[in-house]
Prior knowledge:
Blueprint: H1 8-20, H2 23-30, H3 34-48, E1 53-55, E2 60-62, H4 64-88, E3 95-100, H5 102-119, E4 124-128, E5 143-148, E6 156-168, E7 191-193, H6 201-207, E8 218-220, H7 224-232, E9 237-240, H8 245-249, E10 260-270, H9 278-292
Parallel strand pairs: 3-4, 3-5, 7-8, 7-9
Antiparallel strand pairs: 1-2, 5-10, 6-9, 6-10
Helix pairs in contact: 1-2, 1-3, 1-4, 2-3
Amino acid sequence: xxxxxxxxxxxxxxxxxxxxxxxxxxxxxxxxxxxxxxxxxxxxxxxxxxxxxxxxxxxxxxxxxxxxxxxxxxxxxxxxxxxxxxxxxxxxxxxxxxxxxxxxxxxxxxxxxxxxxxxxxxxxxxxxxxxxxxxxxxxxxxxxxxxxxxxxxxxxxxxxxxxxxxxxxxxxxxxxxxxxxxxxxxxxxxxxxxxxxxxxxxxxxxxxxxxxxxxxxxxxxxxxxxxxxxxxxxxxxxxxxxxxxxxxxxxxxxxxxxxxxxxxxxxxxxxxxxxxxxxxxxxxxxxxxxxxxxxxxxxxx
Length: 301
């Protein structure tokens, strides 16, 4: 017999707090008090019988089981939202369903999407953010912006923005007892990892001459926005791309080593039949024009 599910309200509260890694921000997002968030999380932890968050004086972080439940909640709520949109919206040729991570959305797309919409005022753009999950299906969207090496089958693939991955960290990790001065020093630090299917840490470590087996501290943070913020907060070291240029320029992040993993980048993926829709073709063309116009500057060495 399946276990009784926690209340939807408790799971929704946990989903918000897990994504934002902040009870205060979750309260603002849900329009409730911080005390109400804490109460819902505590109630959920009591019901499940394990801790979802590791609490400290200034911040909270997800426990190992919290990471797993957070990932499941994010997929579930996004799926519910997507299906509600599908069954309630009237079919229209001007709705674009775009699969893109929250990282690319906040770091690049949201700053420029207004330009496209000003040219296409009748278009409605709908986002789906679970683009890097293992069960992602390109047939569920009109176009996807996905990180990888271009090796996808059964769809149209365009290279959009080639980028390398480099080690980044807070300047604070270059100081103190376990200061990072050589790649070997990473054994004393936490690696902030991506989902296993696209995590590149083992490749980077081998390029740096470090045996990946010597790394004993790591945590998987599936959301790149959370992963980068954790690095800024000196919770560990991260592999990042050119989209962190603003954080490099403001010294929120530094790059201690001139070592990079190449052969990857952001690609545009489209189902074979999506190219027949004019609105999808126009959006694809606009994205490619943006990249050819060098709207993303390379990370200056």
